[in-house]
Amino acid sequence: MPYGSMEEAYRNATTLSYLTTEQALAVFVTDLKRNLSAEACPVVLFGGSYGGMLAAWMRLKYPHIAIGALASSAPILQFEDIVPPETFYDIASNDFKCESSSCFNIIKDSWDAIIAEGQKENGLLQLTKTFHFCW
């Protein structure tokens, strides 16, 4: 574990900012398998979203440990230098347009309403209350 212990690594935001995806994978390889007395056992990984990204990367980085990975809703190629940032927006927008152009327009217009509300005095506070955001 980075910094010698989990307690030290999670002590504050300063130390957390240095933890990386590579460290998460390495911790799994070294600590988790050892703690479960499973060093010799093959692993099949499952994950969704960020967990799916970790599962896929783990399979790529450690194929001798992970014999398979199922990555659901894992945007593993969604990086600026690989895929244009608006790609997800375009795909999601087209899904709504295919079902109902009216639905698409209502959703699209809602963003303008949210932005306008957020720019008002106390608008962000009102949005926080309306949508029950954590703060």
UniProtKB/TrEMBL annotation:
One of its GO terms (biological process) is proteolysis. The keyword Cell membrane does not apply. The lineage of its organism: Eukaryota, Viridiplantae, Streptophyta, Embryophyta, Tracheophyta. Keywords: Glycoprotein, Hydrolase, Protease, Signal. This is Peptidase S28. One of its GO terms (cellular component) is vacuole. It comes from the Eukaryota. It holds the Pfam family Peptidase_S28. The keyword Electron transport does not apply. GO terms for molecular function: dipeptidyl-peptidase activity; serine-type exopeptidase activity.
